Amino acid sequence: MSDSKYLKRTIVKEQIESRFLNETRNLRVYLPPGYNEILSYPVVYCQDGEEFFNFGRIATIANHLILDGNAEPFIIVGVEVDTSVRTQEYAPFGNRFESYTRCFAEEIIPFIEAKYPIRKEASERILAGDSLGGSVSLHLAIRYPGLFQRIISLSGAYYPASQDIIEAQDDLSNLDIFMIVGLQETAYETDHGVHNFVELNRQTRELLLDRGAKVEYAEKDGKHLWGFWQKELPDALMYFLHE
């Protein structure tokens, strides 16, 4: 199959007016090859939507997975973020966290599902994120268990505030999480200190397993960069979307 077939992508730009955030939020929606409104599709919602499309090349990866016959066709929704307030929205100690999580679950999901033929079961929605995007995806699944069960966590930023929230849960057996972290992420500098992401992810994996979650976990050579995560995206997507 020629490369041009993989590169022909249908991406629709959407905007939603959020009453929780008091602003307009941009979305990117990838529609799979052969998209048909009378069918129904699973969906992947990505935090850092712009980066998943630009640096993660998720649309091209999805085309490969679908056209090569291994993956069920799926829709991708990239939720864009202003990087200057990203930590405030994605971290549980952030002053926009409450508003962002409510916007995501109570505004973005209904908006997308009213407009596109997406299956309504929690098992058909996948949340994906890198770093703080991975941890906010887990927080969304904890806050809205009726909406979300499946998570792709790429080097999740599971700081103590996040671990405390996980530890406070009694039962997370509804969750199925694909976690990966790079072995070169032992001293990564963030906007609030240097963190050992390998250790944070190991600890979080144990917290999740202790509460009954299903966890597919791997540590591989890699840094806290899209160059690492892009290579892992096909396996992460196929974990949930193989036919």
From TrEMBL:
Superkingdom of source: Bacteria
Q: What is this protein called?
A: Esterase family protein
The cross-references to PANTHER family, in alphabetical order and at most eight, read: ENTEROCHELIN ESTERASE-RELATED, IRON(III) ENTEROBACTIN ESTERASE
Ranges in coiled-coil conformation: none
Source organism per UniProt: Paenibacillus azoreducens
